[in-house]
Every structure is written in C-alpha cells, then in structure tokens.
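Handout, section B. The chain below has 547 residues.
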Amino acid sequence: MKRTGTMRFLSLALALAMALCFAACSGSKAPDPSTAPAEPAPGSEPMTAPRPEETGEPQHGGSLKVTINGDPGSLDIMLETSENTQIPASHIFETILTADYAGNVHPGVCTYEQSADGLVITLTLREGLKFHNGDPVTMEDIHATIDRWLGSVSFAQNALGNKLDNIQYTDTTAVITLKESAPLALQALSAYDRGPYVMPKSILEAAGDDKITEAMGYIGTGPYKFVEWQADRHIKLARYEDYIATGVEASGLAGSKMAYADEIYVIPVKDKMTRITGVQTGSYDVGIGVPSNLYAQLSADPNLIVSMADLGINPGLVFNCLEGPTTDVKLRQAILACLDMESLLLAAEGDENFYYQSPCFMPKASAFYNEAGLEKYRQIDPAAAKALLEESSYNGETLVYLTTKDYDYFYKTALLASDMMRQIGINVELTVVDNATLNDMRSDPKQYSMFSCGLTPKSDPTQIAFIASDKWAGGYASEGKTELVRKLLSTPGKEERIAQWKELSELLYEEVPVITFGERRNAIVTRDNIHNIFDGEKKFYWNTWIG
C-alpha cells in the first residue's frame, strides 16, 4: 500500500504549502520549516534496526532520566488514560493480575484460580505485600479497589460487572461468581489501561468519585515509590526496598519487576527536538520519537543506541456524533472519501519507514488485525466526496477541528486534512490548543465538530475508547455497534471473536465515527549505557539498568 516517487513528494509539498498559507492567513502559527517532511533519499533502506541483544549482568544503582510528552493531569492511573500518567504511575501501582506479551494471565497483587466452567474466579492475596507507607495490603484494599474500578471504568463493567452474580470476600480471598460466560474477565483484571490498580482503602474512600491527588497520597505496591512531583520539571520515583516480586519470568507487564535503578526521573518535555537532542547531550537517557531526518545522524553516534519500535498508535480524528453537522453520516463519509492517508502520514512522519498505511483500529501485530474497509480507507475520491456532500444536510457551516501542537503529528495531520476538506467545499476552522485543553474541550460537544486523536494500542478491541463506551468523547453509539460489542463480550472462542471484530470494523467504515490515518512507528534513542528497556507497546523501566 505504498506509493513513492518524486511526483508524489512534490504533490505533498504543494499541498503542505497551501495549508501553511491558509494557516498563516488565518493567524495560526506555521510549523518550523526545519521539521517539514524531507524527501527520502533514493535507494534508502528501511529503518528497522532492533536494539542489540543484552548479554551483560544487570547492575544496581544510578539515576535513570526518561522523558514523557508533558505533565500528566494526575497519577490516578485507574482513571487516567494518557501515557504521561501511565508511564510513571505504572511503576508505583500494580494491578490485581497481570498479562504477558502473549496475553496469558499471571499473578499480580493476587494469584488466581478459575473453575472449569469459567464461572468462578478465586483471587488470593499474595503473602507479605506492603504498601509504600509500610501498611500491609489487605483484602479490604482489594475490595475497595474492585468497587471503585467496576463503578468507574467502562471496560470493567462490560467485561465483568454486567456478568457478575456476586463477590464473596474473606481475609485472604475474593471469590467472584459469574451468572454467565465472561471470556474477558481475567483480561480485565490484568488490564494495563484503566485496570484495577490496587490502592489503600483509606485513600480510595477519601477520593470518592474524584481523582486521587498528591495530597491524598500516591501510594501503591510497585517496585518504585513516589517521591515528588515538580510541575514541568520532573516526577521522581525511588526504589521500594520492600518490594516482593512475583517470581514469574518477566514478559511484558507480567513477571518479576526489578528496580535496578536507584531513582527514575520522569521528565516532561513537550518539544520532540529538545527530547532527542537532550539524549545526545546526556541530559536524558531515553527519548521516544526520533524525527526521521535525524535517524541516520543519531545512529552514527557511538554514544547512542537507536532502534525502531512498533508502538501501535493510530493517528486520526474523532467526529462529534452528538450534535452539529457531523451527526450526518453522509458528511462523515464525504470527509473520509476526500482524505489521502499516505500524504497525511508522510506529512506527520517525514519518511515512509515511520508509518504503516492501515485501515484497522487494532495494531498490525495483533491477532485482531484486519483490512476491513481498505477500499474506503484508500479511495482518495474527491468526486465521490462531493457527491456525498451534496447528499448530506451540510449547508456551509463552519466545522471546528480541535488539535494541538503538543503532539506534532496531531497538528501536521490536522493542518493537511483541513485543506483536503476545504478542497471539496467544506468550511473548516482549525482550533489549536494545548493538549490538556483539547482533552477538556472534547468532553463538551458544543465546542467542536472533530478533534485530533492518537489511539493507543489495546489487547482487545472492546477496550478501544470509542468502542468501550458510548459516553467517550464524540459520543458514538449505534444499534449495530451495541449488538456486535455484546457478542464480543460474550463469545469465548477466539476465532469467532476475530470474525465479529471484522464485522464491526466494516460497520465503522459505514458509520465513520472515527477515522484512522494509519499506524505510526517510532524510533527510540537511548544512551549506550542504558540496558533492557521495554520491547513492546507499553513503556516501562523496571528491569532497566545503567551500566
């Protein structure tokens, strides 16, 4: 699905120039020309370098300095979905169960047993576990965690809560009895995204329906404990000396978590170039998102290690399906028909080795990946788009497209996509705000017609935000979606579920609540003395050492 060549690049360059001109005329600040896409060198090889295999013995000690894109809203990982929260908070808090790269479930704070019919799950609290404040973990804490989780997380309610008969607690166990098959129950109990992260009952009661704050206490059971948060400077974590590992071989988010570094400084750095050059100078140890035009230069630096990673992130846009012009499916279909996905991806990433053209909302590496909707994804048909626009109720209204420069791929794709829409007769106003404001505004359907998104990878399609809940931003709901999600949540057979997801994927290209432009790839740079960083979609630094 790649198209390359000089004419292709010149066409994109002209389109970007027109979009930049419009942005300048409308008062928006144009991107720095130094970050504009560069034409790939003729005959250049794909950038697929893996990290070198680790051969040395792990070493304890030192301070690890890693970067995130900006300050998180909070470290309440049960209620927050941003990576800026998840990266530091997943070192502090642990889920009831955990899952490895293959999706197999392992012990977390608890071990588990499941009956042959799958209707009874017994959780047993691991012995000797203590919170970072020294208090022992009790089943009262597990009880409070499960209650909060089931009451606030859509996936928890869909996968477990709606199928629950009762939960019986003792001093050391929780016996979950189901009234019907719940094939995703164990996966939910081990979920990384808004999973059942165990916290002290007293703190959960103090928070009530609100997010946990630093004043209440970020107290968990993980390999690192919270030390301090200096806004716009760092979040400091320190090794928790009384941590008890599970003893299971490490794989992904499961298994033993070793705190080799004495401290981890998680540093918010909004500007990508600053992140990457900071690793060059030694200010940081890890930087994610190496620009394509710096890849070769950094790879040649003997003090650095540069590797490519498929992190499964889908850049795209989400429509307002609750009110305004974009509630009309014909208008949404018209916008899909006018978009040139390769140009959008190339504008964002600058090199074809940094993205996959993909119509699917699940990563290419997932068993759930499919190419349903491929023809509509890559149609690039302005005539068909104009015809759909004529069939719609659209009457020249201004569509407000929310985006942010905090993620440069949000802004670059929004800039070019807006221009593509204008070319078929749609009036688009690009509203550029910081990411925190975008997240607030997207909750109010009166403030936008569409917004930029970067959908993070999930292990199951029922965890995708706009699939999991009709109440997520954009408010996508339909009878077809509801029925197919119900089947996905109730069907135990994997092949049947894969077929059901393909059917739902086809529906998404009919109803067009969200558009994915494709799947990003990321180049990661580290100092050459940083060993054993994450090798999957989730970013974590336990088991990483300095040496």
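Note. Residues 330 and 392 are 5 Å apart (CA to CA). Compare this with the example in section A.
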